[in-house]
């Protein structure tokens, strides 16, 4: 018998996200990441749970109601939130607080051609900049159409000069956005649009090719005239009302009396279209907006013209228009999921949708408005955007595969139900509160607008009673909203991108905390069916279906959404360019309002390939005087992570294998910590340490850094480390009893002896579990393959440059020089980057530290600087009895000189090496990479996310941020951008 799954209303009043009620007898434990996101982004004051946030939001929106009805509506709003309505992020984070922040996610702001004067309702450029800064400061993202700004080189009569063009002014907006911190401590989001017929359109298309305009999404506003010219292979004119400069006139610019515009030049429409498509194919930008279709479909085509969208493009908006958004979690309405009796509860969905319309209408009256123009625009039209989220997961729960006709039929059915319910609810509100001021029934239903296609009975009702809201529907990306409030249900209209992934979140102290993030439908299925149950055919991710299937889902739903849908069509890296172009042409022909695609490729970022290298990097050699070593190519690497980024938390303790090391100056105990292997076969070592008063100085630091190598999923890497230690020669070679029977073996020093014992124990554990030895070539070698040189790079007789610093510890009578040999590597942008490749000591120092030097030298030759940074940070707190001393702090700003106490010579050396990496622009002074390369990423399985090339992540630094589900998403650390 199928297990019941009742979530109407959703029972989370005091426990979510600690647990999710599935049935009276079954609960689904919550996810730690959901709690973390909730507390970081949405909770205020003493709020700890979803129930706390819901109560605040319900109370805030009920205050708009008549005083005698506020208690009734507060209860109704709370029930609606519990049942699955998810207001957008600004509402969740700011409603009912003392913040002077807007409840509106995004706006479109007008930009004119003048510097400061208003022209046709469009403020001058710097006035618009001020308005945008105020909007972002209050928490809103901003979209702009820059097409009114005159082209580069155009004549500026007032100053008798030439214009610099819209892209130059976009850079000013870009830097402003970078500087202004939005309410809630997030950076503002921006969308920049330029019409396809603007004379600077080619400069705009390529503006982001080399990393410019980092705080913008950009889209080309495409007209039907242009698309028809593309189809006909005809010429296309680039025009503007501003007069060209003298040079442009000499080049053939002329005034077209019929259009009342200056024609700057002509080109083949297909040539321009190919530039747009090639840039999108390589860089995932610009997007494409079909402006004529947006305006044809607009309910208010009779009183406004739309030229831009909000930053995530789900809302085409007029100047000063706003996004008042909320989504209904469809997974809450599936009864008996995954069974043959699985069913969507239409009645419950309608109840939630009706009240959600009222709540969003109340937001328009409850919010703080950054600008009076925005408030006036909202009051005259009362736009809202109700949508749904979790469609992908809901289809899986209904046993419907996303890329099938039956799934599209279900999505269409839900969309029609949402459309009809929302418009009916808005008409009811109009009876109670009055229609939006610009409502005119004859004009509203005229032409080709969305409203003209409403059912006849609904149009009759609206004609009779009016409509409270000019627009009602929008399917937006839900991003962190889904993580915090919907157990990571799939985002918006999208299918799940992956079933599980790891979220590596940077903490305030600079460290990383790792979370397992699981898709809601996947974890529910595992909960109900067991971990070993095979996934059904309905479990299909975004990357496992065709681009055509993505586009078909949008085409199925779009006719029933009055604004737009945020949807990213993901295509594989080898997707043919001709087919890629065809997606956009098909979107225009299908009447869509725009299209966004994402294709992973090497142009987008410099993350290492996931293909293992077939041949090891050879030792490097160079001749010549005073040159640094040079590497001509980067080897590819398997991206992998540590089993544990730090020592695992073991409240119940763990077993450890112990061995007494006997050497000429005394004895000490060697401990190897062990845990059950993750595959259940035997034990695996995960740390090593030494104990005893006779242990050689520096050996403990060696053990500390070797512990991190034991935690890597790379037995060959560990074997390389132990090989490096096996030949460390010290002042006194000696013989030592060796396991398992105590036969004496000669060793060149205590470091080599310690390494031999560790190798013996690792080999013994491997043999006990039935696996090959640690140095087996059959095992995966992700860290080893990520080295740019296995051996220390070899110089010619003329030598090479190096960096050296003196260390003097009077507490231990040590005085020696630390030397870093350095190598030049090609950086992501093609420029050479200097990297340390080996460290050595000369002078009076403990010889056991030669072992530490050999380990760190190998770590330095891992391409991802996160690796050596991790090793050095672990040594910063390494302490030795009576070994602390005072020394100057390196890397202080403004030339400041200050001494501090260092816990040991090793800790000071680690800090000096970090400082050198900071001097080279590789790590910061805290030891964290300024630009990671992804070597420490998650292992690939069918149910995890692959690392993909993209933009630089603001949290982890990897160039692995892609556009997923309408949001920025880091495939290395799981960071989610500003949406939802």
From TrEMBL:
Cleaved signal peptide residues: none
InterPro entries per UniProt: RdRp_reductase_class-2 (IPR050862), RNR_lg_C (IPR000788), RNR_NrdJ/NrdZ (IPR013344)
Pfam families in the record: Ribonuc_red_lgC
The reaction(s) this protein catalyses: a 2'-deoxyribonucleoside 5'-diphosphate + [thioredoxin]-disulfide + H2O = a ribonucleoside 5'-diphosphate + [thioredoxin]-dithiol
EC number(s) on file: 1.17.4.1
Biased composition regions of type Polar residues, renumbered to the chain: 9-26
Cofactor(s) of this protein: adenosylcob(III)alamin
Keyword terms of this UniProt record: Cobalamin, Cobalt, Disulfide bond, DNA synthesis, Nucleotide-binding, Oxidoreductase
Domain Ribonucleotide reductase large subunit C-terminal intervals: 105-598
Region (Disordered): 1-26
Source taxon at top rank: Bacteria
Family as reported in the entry's similarity comment: Belongs to the ribonucleoside diphosphate reductase class-2 family.
PANTHER family per UniProt: RIBONUCLEOSIDE-DIPHOSPHATE REDUCTASE (PTHR43371:SF1), VITAMIN B12-DEPENDENT RIBONUCLEOTIDE REDUCTASE (PTHR43371)
Functional note: Catalyzes the reduction of ribonucleotides to deoxyribonucleotides. May function to provide a pool of deoxyribonucleotide precursors for DNA repair during oxygen limitation and/or for immediate growth after restoration of oxygen.
Identification of the protein by name: Vitamin B12-dependent ribonucleotide reductase
Record organism: Rhodoferax lithotrophicus
